[in-house]
Structures are given as C-alpha cells and as structure tokens.
C-alpha cells in the first residue's frame, strides 16, 4: 500500500465514522480514559455557548481551554454554519493526517542522520508503515473521534521537530513549541531536550544563536499568545483556569494518571507538599535524560538526542496530572522510527503490549462498576491507572536499555551483535 492510500484510508476512518455516528463524539468526550476536563470537546462546546451568550468564558470553572483556541475553533464552526459538526470532523481528520505524514518525514531524517553517524546504512520501515502506526493506532483514533484538543498538541510536538530537523528553521520550531505549551501546559518541559537536539544536529554549534535565541523566541511566542488572550477576555482568569489549575491539580477527575486518587484521599494539610513533589517529579528527569543521551561532538557514534526528546515526552506523559490514552498512543506511534537502532535490543515490548491490552479492556469495566452500577469503588479504577503507569515505565526502561546496548556496540565495535549478551547490574 502506498503512502497516499494509507493517508486517505486513515483519514476516511477518522472522518466517516463520527459523521455517520455523530453521537459517538459526545460519548467518547465523556470517557475518563479518552478525555479529561482540560482537553474535552464538551468543555469546548460549553465555551462556545458562553461566547454566544456574551458570558465570561471562565465563570463557573467549566472551561479550561485557552481563549485564543476557543475563539478560533468557534469562528471555524460559525463559518461552517449548520454543517459545523462535519467541519470539525474534517478539521480533526486533517490534523491527524498531517501528523502521520510528518512522522514519515522524521523517520527518514532519523535513519539518514544515524546512518551518517554510525557509518552503516539504516533503511528503516517504509513510509506507509510509519504512517499506519499512527493512523491505525486505536488510542489515537479514539482520541480523534472524541475531538480532544490533545490532537492539536500532538501535531505541534511533531511539527516542531520537523521545523528544526528537516526544514532547518530552528526559530520557527521554537515558536511552534510555544504554541504547544499555550495549548496544553506540559509541553513547556520539552524545551530542554528540544534545545539540546537542535544544538546537537546543527552543522556549526553556536550556542548564542541556537540556545539563547531559541529560548527568547519560545518565551516571546508564549507571551504574545497570553497577551492576545488577555486582549480577548480583558482578564487573566484563563491563566488560572488553563495552566495554574493543571499545576495545582484543582479539578479532581478520574483518569488514567497517578494524581487523582491520591489527592482524593489526601488530607488538605498535606496537599501543598505533595502537589509540589508531584510537579517536581513531572520534570525532574528531563535534564538528566537530555544530558545522558546528548550527541557529543567528541563521541561521533554514541548518544541520540532525538531519542532523548522522545524519552522526555514519554516521561512527561506518564507523570502529568491529566493524561489520556492518546498521550501513550503518540509515543507508541513514534516507536517504529527507532526500528533500526533501539527496537532490536529491547526485551519487554511484548510484555508491555499485553499489559496495555489488559488495562484498556478492564479500565472501562471497572469504571462502569464504580460509577454506574455502584458495586465497586475507586480502588478498582485506580488499579488500572497503576497498570497504565506500569506500561509507561516498562516501555521507558526498555527503550533506555536498548539505547545503552547500541552505545556499547558502537563504542566497542562489536562485529556480531546477535551473539552479544549484556546483563543489567
């Protein structure tokens, strides 16, 4: 199957199903595993109602999307008129298809880049397979059908890599990262691996240009978006409802993350301490991961700054306050990019796959038993949150181990890696 057919078929699945089953979007938008109050399409529709009736967007603490995003999405729907639901289906479809296509570009770049570094040809998987891993990933498809705003964040994260690595426009990449951080707070932590990546792959390493200017552009873009948002609302309430709420986890809602159950049971006296610890935990490993896998100019064959960016994203997705299955879906969809480097040396992909399937099957059942039937309790559903965390950690550690094996092979010039037996101590 060619790349074009793959993109068309993947787009058709995303567009036709919610078009002929319009109630599906509302059902999925209310599902704890697929949507949270921070990225929910229901919340966005509530914002549309507020705007239409001249009400304050953030009165009532029901809307948590940034105001510029709300205004743009409402304007798009208004232009479509009575066909707004179909127009939104088309918009979310185009965004996902664009993300899939850009992943194929990143795969080509990655294999070319590491072929040059290692001195041996790396072919990688065909483009249509790379696109298929994203377009036919059920976690991504469900997130798309739910019209979660996370779909736009995924596009921005992939786009910033394309801008920096393929188009060689570092400054545009920093601006895109600023937009991603504006849409959802957590991508702000990716600025560290992003700066290391653009510095590592640059033909001439000039830190004033590649680091200082990129940081400046990132903060300039975020500040500009915040000021435009202030101009739209005349208040800074959106900062509290869209970002501060995420940091302080002020909206307790069941999800597949680790936060919600603990702060449901926590005494109020201890809340500030543990919220600080959890926020620190969310970003504390970003810098060590970036430094450990940095592509040093003195070590031509070891290190992988692109993988460091991927691992940082995986960690942030694992430890964030309001995760959804689509966060893991993007991480899984990017795994085939490493098919010629890290994946051959991983050990537990099959185990993590089975664990993920178990979690996805049981979590809606346990949630139904708890919320609808009332013959279970929150422990049932939180056990699936812990299982999902286990999936993240198995995948995270497995990929790190695979990269360490690759570095050992390159450093020691192992002739036959298939006979290599390394042991973790």
TrEMBL record:
GO cellular component, as recorded: GPI-anchor transamidase complex
Any GO BP: GPI anchor biosynthetic process
Transmembrane annotation, as ranges: 139-162, 174-197, 217-236, 243-262, 274-294, 306-325, 345-368, 380-401
Keyword Mitochondrion: no
Membrane topology: Multi-pass membrane protein
Alphabetized InterPro entries for the sequence: PIG-U
Entry keywords, A to Z: Endoplasmic reticulum, GPI-anchor biosynthesis, Membrane, Signal, Transmembrane, Transmembrane helix
Pathway annotation: Glycolipid biosynthesis; glycosylphosphatidylinositol-anchor biosynthesis
Main location: endoplasmic reticulum
Subcellular location: Endoplasmic reticulum membrane
Signal peptide bounds: 1-18
PANTHER family in the cross-refs: GPI TRANSAMIDASE COMPONENT PIG-U (PTHR13121), PHOSPHATIDYLINOSITOL GLYCAN ANCHOR BIOSYNTHESIS CLASS U PROTEIN (PTHR13121:SF0)
Record family assignment: Belongs to the PIGU family.
Name of the molecule in the record: PIG-U-domain-containing protein
